[in-house]
Amino acid sequence: VRFNLNPSVLFLESLLFLAAIGLFLPTLTYDFAYDDFIQIVKNEYVRSPDKSLRQIFSVFGQPTIPGDLYRPLAAFSFRLNNLYESGIAQSFHLLNVLLFAGIAVLVFVLIYRFSESKNLSFLAALLFVVHPVHVEPVANIYGRTELLAAFFGIWAVLMFGSGVKDNSNVKVWLSGTLFFL
């Protein structure tokens, strides 16, 4: 994926990133809620003090408990979050907010690739940022599954488009990997 180093584009991307952070900054004061208790607080994999690589990567070979869902990347991110700041909800919320801010920039880049209009891309991405449908995935820590899906999904589309444009098999295959994530 080529980055546009045009100062006006970088400025708009920065504004979107900061708007997304500013909008969801209050979530840093939230505690664990609802599914967070099951998936993080009471999850033995996430809370395990075992820092061995075998234990940390074990989630990729088994269903996510409870419910036998297969969400290893989300559980893995919770585990890394917990290793960094054990039991502190604010660090989990911070990562969700940063992921959402990154998604806002990717939405801008995606629309800009198709429209080549900075203004249209900025307004559409800003609408994406302020749309209330994003409150639950960002404010509830377990919503990270949706944030990761959006982040890697949009990035995969951008990478695929770049690979086709550049006639790069590496980028096309990388886009498949990103989509898989």
Could you tell me the radius of gyration in angstroms? 18 Å
Any idea what the shape is? globular
Strand percentage: under 5%
- Proportion of residues in helical segments: 55-70%
Instruction: Average the pLDDT over all residues and give the rounded result.
Output: 89
Q: How many helical elements?
A: 10
Q: Structural class of the secondary elements?
A: mainly alpha
Topology:
Blueprint: H1 7-24, H2 35-41, H3 44-47, H4 53-56, H5 72-84, H6 89-115, H7 118-130, H8 135-139, H9 144-166, H10 169-180
Protein described:
The protein has 181 residues and is an all-alpha fold. Helices cover 70% and strands 0% of the residues. It has helices at residues 7-24, 35-41, 44-47, 53-56, 72-84, 89-115, 118-130, 135-139, 144-166, 169-180. Helix 1 (7-24) runs parallel beside helix 7, helix 6 (89-115) packs antiparallel against helix 7 (118-130) and helix 6 (89-115) runs parallel beside helix 9 (144-166). The longest helix is centred in the middle third of the chain and has 27 residues, at 89-115.
Give the tags.
181 residues; mainly alpha; 70% helix
Short description, anyone?
With 181 residues, the protein is an all-alpha fold. The chain has helices at 7-24, 35-41, 44-47, 53-56, 72-84, 89-115, 118-130, 135-139, 144-166, 169-180. Helices cover 70% and strands 0% of the residues.
